[in-house]
Amino acid sequence: TRTLDLAVIAGDGIGPEVVAEGLKVLDAVLAGSDVAVATTPYELGAKRWHATGETLTDEDLAAIAQHEAILLGAIGDPGVPSGVLERGLLLKLRFAFDHYVNLRPSVLYPGVPTPLADPGEVDFVVVREGTEGPYVGNGGAIRVGTAAEVANEVSVNTAFGVERVVRDAFARAQARPRKKLTLVHKHNVLVHAGHLWRRTVEAVSADFPEVTVDYAHVDAATIYLVNDPSRFDVIVTDNLFGDILTDLAAAITGGIGLAASGNVNPDGEFPSMFEPVHGSAPDIAGKGIADPTATVLSVALMLEHLGMTEQAARIQEAVAADIAARIGNETTRSTTEIGDAIAARVAG
Amino acid sequence: TRTLDLAVIAGDGIGPEVVAEGLKVLDAVLAGSDVAVATTPYELGAKRWHATGETLTDEDLAAIAQHEAILLGAIGDPGVPSGVLERGLLLKLRFAFDHYVNLRPSVLYPGVPTPLADPGEVDFVVVREGTEGPYVGNGGAIRVGTAAEVANEVSVNTAFGVERVVRDAFARAQARPRKKLTLVHKHNVLVHAGHLWRRTVEAVSADFPEVTVDYAHVDAATIYLVNDPSRFDVIVTDNLFGDILTDLAAAITGGIGLAASGNVNPDGEFPSMFEPVHGSAPDIAGKGIADPTATVLSVALMLEHLGMTEQAARIQEAVAADIAARIGNETTRSTTEIGDAIAARVAG
Ligand SMILES: CC(C)[C@H](C(=O)O)[C@@H](O)C(=O)O
Ligand SMILES: CC(C)[C@H](C(=O)O)[C@@H](O)C(=O)O
Question: In its keyword annotation, does this UniProt entry include S-adenosyl-L-methionine (chains A, B) (predicted)?
Answer without folding.
Answer: no
